[in-house]
Amino acid sequence: MAAETRDGDEFDVAVVGGGLVGVATAWGLSREGCRVVILDEGDRAVRASRGNFALVWVQSKGLGLAPYAGWTIRSSNAWRGFSDLLKQETGLDVAFQRPGGFHLCLSEKELEARANVLKRLHNQPGIVDYKTEILTHDQVKAMLPDIGPEVVGGSFCPLDGHVNSLRLFRTLHAALNARGVVYRPSHRVESITREGGEFRLTTTRGEVRAAKVALAAGNANMRLAPMVGLDCPMKPERGQIVVTERLRPFLNHPVVTLRQTDEGTVMIGDSKEESVDPTGLTIGVSATEAERAVRQFPLLANVNVVRTWSAIRVMTQDGFPIYDESQSHPGAFTVCCHSGVTLAANHALTIAPMIARGALDASLVAPFSARRFHVQAAG
Amino acid sequence: MTAAADLASSYELVVIGGGPAGLAAASLAARAGVSTALFDENPGVGGQIYRAITSTPVKDRAVLGEDYWDGAALADEAKASGALIVNGATVWSLDRQRLVGVSIGGKARVIEAGRVIIATGSQERPFPIPGWTLPGVMTVGAAQTVLKAQGLVVCERTVLAGSGPLLWLLAAQTLRAGGKIDAILDTTPRRNWLQAAVHLPDFALSPYFAKGLALLREVRARVPVHRVDRIEAVGADRVREVVFSSAGGTRRLPVDLLLLHQGVVPNVNLANAAGVTHVWNDRQLCFVPVLDADFGSSVPGIAVAGDGAGIAGGTAAAERGRIAAIAAVRALKPDAVVPDTQAIRQRLQREEMGRAFLDWLNRPADGFRMPEGETIACRCEEVTAQQVRETARMGCEGPNQMKAFLRCGMGPCQGRLCGLTVTELIAEERKATPDEVGYYRLRPPVKPITLAELASLPISEAERKAVER
Amino acid sequence: MFKRLAEKGPAIAITVDGKTVNAHAGDTVAAALLAAGIDHCRTTPVTGAPRAPYCLMGVCFDCLVTVDGVGSRQGCLIPVREGMKVETQLGRREAGR
Ligand SMILES: Cc1cc2nc3c(=O)[nH]c(=O)nc-3n(C[C@H](O)[C@@H](O)[C@H](O)COP(=O)(O)OP(=O)(O)OC[C@H]3O[C@@H](n4cnc5c(N)ncnc54)[C@H](O)[C@@H]3O)c2cc1C
Ligand SMILES: Cc1cc2nc3c(=O)[nH]c(=O)nc-3n(C[C@H](O)[C@H](O)[C@H](O)COP(=O)(O)OP(=O)(O)OC[C@H]3O[C@@H](n4cnc5c(N)ncnc54)[C@H](O)[C@@H]3O)c2cc1C
Ligand code: FES
Known about the structure:
The complex is a heterotrimer.
Chain A: E1 9-16, H1 20-31, E2 36-39, E3 55-56, H2 67-90, E4 101-105, H3 108-122, E5 133-136, H4 137-143, E6 153-157, E7 161-162, H5 165-178, E8 182-184, E9 189-195, E10 198-203, E11 206-215, H6 221-224, E12 237-244, E13 258-260, E14 266-268, H7 283-296, E15 304-313, E16 322-325, E17 332-336, H8 344-357, H9 362-365, H10 371-378
Parallel strand pairs in A: 1-2, 1-11, 2-8, 11-17
Antiparallel strand pairs in A: 3-7, 4-6, 5-6, 9-10, 10-11, 12-14, 12-15, 13-14, 16-17
Chain B: E1 10-16, H1 20-31, E2 36-40, H2 61-64, H3 66-80, E3 84-87, E4 89-94, E5 99-104, E6 107-118, E7 122-124, E8 137-139, H4 140-150, E9 152-154, E10 158-163, H5 165-176, E11 183-186, H6 192-197, H7 200-205, H8 208-220, E12 225-227, E13 230-234, E14 241-246, E15 249-254, E16 257-262, E17 264-266, H9 269-273, E18 278-281, E19 286-289, E20 302-304, H10 314-332, H11 341-352, H12 355-361, H13 366-369, E21 376-378, E22 383-384, H14 385-393, H15 399-406, H16 419-430, H17 434-437, E23 449-450, H18 451-455, H19 461-465
Parallel strand pairs in B: 1-2, 1-6, 2-3, 6-20, 8-16, 10-11, 10-16, 11-12
Antiparallel strand pairs in B: 4-5, 5-6, 7-17, 13-14, 14-15, 18-19, 21-22
Helix pairs in contact in B: 1-3, 1-10, 4-5, 5-8, 10-11, 14-16
Chain C: E1 2-4, E2 11-16, E3 19-24, H1 29-35, E4 42-43, E5 50-51, E6 64-67, E7 70-74, E8 85-87, E9 89-90
Parallel strand pairs in C: 2-8, 4-9
Antiparallel strand pairs in C: 2-3, 4-5, 6-7, 6-8
The site of FE2/S2 (inorganic) cluster has 13 residues of chain C, from loops.
């Protein structure tokens, strides 16, 4: 129950942000026995977790920061167990599947560019080699019989999968509720201070005290992190998605820009625009997504679109996650990333236990400290 | 027939909806020399009140009543005005830049509008009782629509249930047409009279007073009326009987058709998607757009006229359309000659006079707006009241998070049949006001279009680059 | 459920799930189905429950039917045409139809 705040509530950990990153982390913390409060904004908040594409995606991850590939694969591998745990707790099935996924190309030029990306990715030192193959039209067709003649080929990675991310969001909230974790919507955190060995979080509806703080407020981490001696440089961008009515199953693999959900709807993405206006929507962008979708799967031409939307991606300045602990304010952590669906298993099962113990495990997450930005700036 | 390809790339004024508000607005603007296009998704003009006014097979004027036939003049006037009137044209998108997405015969276009008047009218308020999704349960408005447009009249084992003027009107029209109604289940809470009584003097002066009384008398003389406070539609594959109860006990009647109605509410989808600010109106128990004296909305250049601006009836709708059109003409063509708004405002005031009485009297009871248990709240996604209530108790504060969690409002109707219910259920659980809870954030297409239609729209280089990487 | 007041206009023959149904000029698909006494026009994609036209004004989407091979059309907004093939829609629509 979303109770009103009594001044001076005390918790082991205050998680700031009730998006997927916040709730996955909070759930993991609760499993470790922590008394957790989640402070969140209200119904109309900008929340990437309500507008994403729901892929649990591996291919392409890690170009520019090799350890990110390994980190992503770790989560992909942990996902099955994670979804089983959630099902045990709530009875809800988040429909996780890992049948392998495609990136489809509509011209030789696109295919060549795709092959190049994969080559550069795999040539990086220290990269985990995840098998992504380039396939011809016929090879793709053997697995995706409904592709159109304009699909010249694509890439396939057997580790790629997807999930019902809205149900995941709900399931995590339901699990937290059942565990007695306190969830406080419309409690936007305005300031955080550290006094007498604990954190005081001033919200729009009163103060909350906690021994530790996990910042999981998405793009707002940029503003909050400096309050606890951390840095979280962000570069939000807008993505647009088109969704159709429910259809009978026709597609057994997710494509990076097109997937059929377990409910039958087809989601089509994934655009990038430099905008932070979550209400704006560019019809021409939806049109491009639709046009490519029809070329990829001509049988979709007559299908009804029921909604298009835009959502703001939580994007760090270089696109890779930021996991940090504060030196000046011990007990303060940042958990921030794009691909919060893919990485949810890691946040719940790897990051949360580290926060519960009070220290991040450098052997796993050192490459994701925001210090990397300063090293670059200095060099 | 105008095809999508025949449309110009821009019009000075685009009017959306061809009911009294839209027809009056379009005629006035076109006469003043403004290039005007009116889009309506129905096969003919007239909107709800004057549905099929140019084509109805019901020739006996007494059946539908003289108020209906008033619409013929509006339709003629609009036709003669020079406005481009396109029927079978569904507007699926409108944004702050006044880009209007319209689909005609399966072909979509996006056109620019100097000004827009949204005249998409009202829809019947959701009436979520147990069994309301069963075949054989329809709305009173639906029965009226097929009477006006196709000359179909209900016969055999029909029960009407609910409240509001339209229910009594359809009952009278049905009886005049030789149809049969077994019973009317009146859900008007008795205590509504207390709040309404204060406004009775105003109502007594309004044109609706005498008409309303006559209608009640006409119907009551021929149909048994029961006051009820609970109704359930029962049946497995279709409705077989209606079970209703009041303080006096529970009764059942076998039915083929159960017609529900508890008033009309603004059809907010398009205005909401365009970013128009809405507020909760507690008297009418619905969201209404925030408008200025000329029906201009919070989005520059977009006005909302007619019942979409708050329920005031068909005659008022036309006057509102005129006022909005005059404002549009003045903005577009300052030198054009337009009628005097003063006279129009006075007529409008007279029309709106009895409204408070009607609103308070016909305010549906809580139990008929905020269902319990397994009663379906969202028809499309089959989400129950219980699920909404439980999720609200879990801390889900508003309809947008609710939609993400339960899919309510995500089906093809885009929340039209569940939006108010979900907001009010959450408000009740949270002990908050519907205004604090808010409404769904709507997005285009507000009416489905095909993927191929969307794909056919113009794409700029930058827009293509945003997707192709 | 419904009877016709006046047999206005020429009869228009359409088929509903292969069976001929006589409609009239001015009918929408949904009105023609109601006049013909057809019980339901679709089953829902969620639980498979039967549904029939509810609002007849384009807001509820319960009148969705397959018209001339194209699924999920709003029957209450589409005028009938001679020879039109209407099919009830069972559950989720099939892509390509
Ligand atoms: C089913 C029904 C029956 C009614 N019958 C009566 C009656 O008999 N007598 C009475 O006094 N009042 C009646 N009303 C009340 C009604 O609200 C009238 O007051 C009057 O019709 C309102 O006029 P309007 O111009 O505001 O809108 P409407 O008459 O409702 O006209 C709105 C028009 O907009 C069109 N439209 C809506 N959305 C779109 C879109 N996205 N794209 C294109 N076109 C769109 C609709 O098809 C419709 O034709 C009825 C209401 C309903 C819902
Ligand atoms: C279009 C799009 C497609 C995507 N596709 C995928 C995909 O296919 N796979 C994938 O893995 N990821 C995908 N993502 C990314 C994924 O959705 C995000 O990484 C993830 O949702 C981020 O979760 P979050 O909790 O960090 O952020 P959010 O969901 O944005 O949540 C942040 C929360 O913090 C709250 N908050 C903000 N400020 C404060 C404050 N001061 N006090 C309290 N609370 C505050 C907000 O209200 C919000 O609830 C996509 C994103 C977008 C936009
Ligand atoms: S019957 Fe409601 S949309 Fe057609």
